[in-house]
Write a structure and sequence with these properties.
Strand content: 5-15%
Number of helices: 8
Shape: globular
Order of helices and strands: EHEHEHEHEHEHHHE
CATH class: Alpha Beta
Largest sheet: 7 strands, parallel
Structural class: alpha/beta
Radius of gyration: 18 Å
Number of domains: 1
CATH topology: Rossmann fold
CATH superfamily: NAD(P)-binding Rossmann-like Domain
Number of strands: 7
């Protein structure tokens, strides 16, 4: 399918690896020029150069932490004319409700709620003026069904979801759509960290931890960054203009819901 976005420009946050890289790859394959952001400059440059060579698109890199004011200024300066914004940030650490204090919640909110909102506020007005835009926020399956050990993520990402629910309906008339992608477990560093915590707490092997988690997923496996990226690219496409304020689960059926 021709996504109809060749020649558009996208900012993809946290895109040196994992799900962010999957989104950047899919958009580059569709002919979209990119602004790629991540905290680690070396991995970011390596991923950007590979996509330049494979797809021939223009790519600007910004090594910065978008959870900070300084990082947001740097990223926004490089992305003023983007047509597409993909918000993404690593999730806060797991734990139990007694473990977290105010500062832990502030860090989670900065990374997983307030930073995406800051980028939306900075970049969506330009999209509205040009009459076309796409925003995709990578959140989590936990906004539909909370995960006990991910209370910080549950809280911050659900806050962003509420913001998007209202904002998306205020900007849709100007040709701009805002939607959320809700990943379950995918084969990324985040999954490795969560599985590693299980290994440590239960004194089992990594292979056993992964097999047990996969068994809880009706699809019987972890997702891949490639299929996640393809879903993101579709939401960013010309074909998705009537999808507004939605939360799309990509979890292999793991979240047991009727609607």
């Amino acid at each position: 399918m021709d996504l109809g976005i060749k020649g558009k420009k996208a900012l993809v946050c946290a895109s040196s690896k994992g799900l962010g890289l999957g989104c950047a790859e899919a958009l580059a394959q569709a002919g979209v020029d990119l602004v790629m952001n991540a905290r680690g400059a070396e991995a970011l440059e390596a991923s950007a150069e590979r996509l330049r060579q494979e797809y021939g698109v223009q790519i600007t890199t910004v090594a910065a932490d978008v959870a900070t004011a300084e990082g947001q200024v740097a990223v926004i300066a490089a992305a003023q004319d983007v047509d597409i914004l993909v918000n993404n940030a690593g999730g806060p650490p797991p734990g139990m409700w007694q473990d977290w204090d105010r500062e832990d919640f502030i860090k989670a909110l900065d990374a997983n709620m307030l930073a995406p909102i800051a980028l939306i506020k900075a970049l969506v007005p330009g999209m509205m003026e040009r009459g076309w835009g796409r925003v995709v926020n990578i959140t989590s399956q936990s906004v539909r069904a909370p995960i006990g050990v991910l209370g910080l993520s549950n809280s911050a990402r659900t806050g962003l979801t509420g913001y998007v629910a209202g904002t998306s309906r205020q900007v849709a008339g100007k040709g701009v759509t805002i939607n959320n992608l809700l990943p379950g477990i995918h084969a990324t560093d985040r999954a490795d960290a969560l599985d590693g915590a299980v290994v440590k707490s239960r004194n089992i092997s990594l292979e056993v931890a992964r097999a047990e988690r996969a068994a809880t997923i009706p699809a019987g496996r972890y997702g891949t960054r490639e299929e996640f990226g393809a879903a993101c690219a579709f939401l960013c496409s010309q074909h998705a203009g009537f999808i507004v304020g939605q939360n799309l689960l990509l979890d292999g059926g793991a979240t047991n819901l009727t609607m």
